[in-house]
Design a protein that fits this description.
Layout (H helix, E strand, L loop, with lengths): L4 H10 L4 H18 L3 H36 L3
Helix pairs in contact: 1-2
Length: 78
């Protein structure tokens, strides 16, 4: 998402705000919103962490299922 600060400042000016205040307000808005937006690097890091967590749980679940199968096989009379 990009913010057209020039267009935003022009709209403020058209509404009666003096140019200097309009520019300051537009820059403050851009800075505030930019700090809240996720970057591609943020998303890549979150996906990597999610992938690692999913693999950890899948491996744990697989071991639990194998252990359960072996426990059940021991209950079957031979």
């Amino acid at each position: 998402m990009t913010i057209d600060t020039l267009e935003y400042a022009k709209r403020l000016e058209a509404g009666g705000v003096d140019r200097k205040h309009a520019e300051i307000h537009a820059e403050a808005l851009r800075a505030s919103l930019s700090a809240q937006l996720a970057t591609k690097q943020d998303l890549d890091a979150a996906i990597a962490k999610l992938d690692a967590t999913m693999i950890k749980y899948m491996v744990g679940q697989t071991f639990a299922i194998v252990a359960l199968v072996f426990a059940l096989l021991r209950l079957i009379p031979h």
